[in-house]
Amino acid sequence: METDVLVIGGSAGGILAALSVKKTYKDKKVTVIRMAERVMVPCGIPYIFGTLKDTSKNVIPDSMLTNAGVELVIDEVVSIDRPNKKVSTRKNGDISYKKLILATGSLPIVPTFIPGYDLDNVFTIKKDEEYLKFVQQKINEAEDVVVVGGGFIGVEMAE
Ligand SMILES: Cc1cc2nc3c(=O)[nH]c(=O)nc-3n(C[C@H](O)[C@H](O)[C@H](O)COP(=O)(O)OP(=O)(O)OC[C@H]3O[C@@H](n4cnc5c(N)ncnc54)[C@H](O)[C@@H]3O)c2cc1C
């Protein structure tokens, strides 16, 4: 497969990068590749556990990309060959590009310096639907929940 612009990562950063490129360069083929089948609205994640009650109500529609003419590939990039301008994917072989945008985002820091961080029923807030479904199930079963961290995400989760 070949594309003019390849964006790795299909969440907030990747979507906006792809849409901006496509809007500016209408004739270019723009492709987004992301691992997840469905992308969570990051800002809505705490509300899955409260008002929304269901991860399916917190999905960024793929039509945001496809309606704008951006190609979408669900796969994982496993390596980047910059001299030859191509990436290797787990399922779809190689994708050649002219320009590459990395929008691979972030994962929560696991505080391994706190003894017990790896016990059962200790979770982080990942932007991953299947993981969030599992956390939701565990929270539904729990009587007491402790939130460690009082930034925006901690406060929203507590609420
Ligand atoms: C609970 C929570 C609440 C938040 N609330 C707010 C808020 O209210 N307001 C706000 O502004 N921000 C909020 N944020 C922050 C916001 O989520 C991030 O700023 C935003 O998600 C960053 O987007 P991103 O696209 O850079 O990265 P990410 O959202 O981390 O996305 C990275 C993407 O890259 C993909 N990817 C990674 N590696 C590969 C690979 N090798 N191959 C293919 N795909 C790959 C991932 O699957 C993912 O789709 C919140 C975050 C959380 C966790």
TrEMBL record:
Highest taxon, organism lineage: Bacteria
GO MF, any single term: oxidoreductase activity
Keyword set, alphabetical order: FAD, Flavoprotein
Record-linked Pfam families: Pyr_redox_2
Cofactor annotation: FAD
Coiled coil: none
Key word Flavoprotein present: yes
Protein's UniProt name: Pyridine nucleotide-disulfide oxidoreductase
Source species: Caldanaerobacter subterraneus
FAD/NAD(P)-binding domain ranges (all copies): 4-158
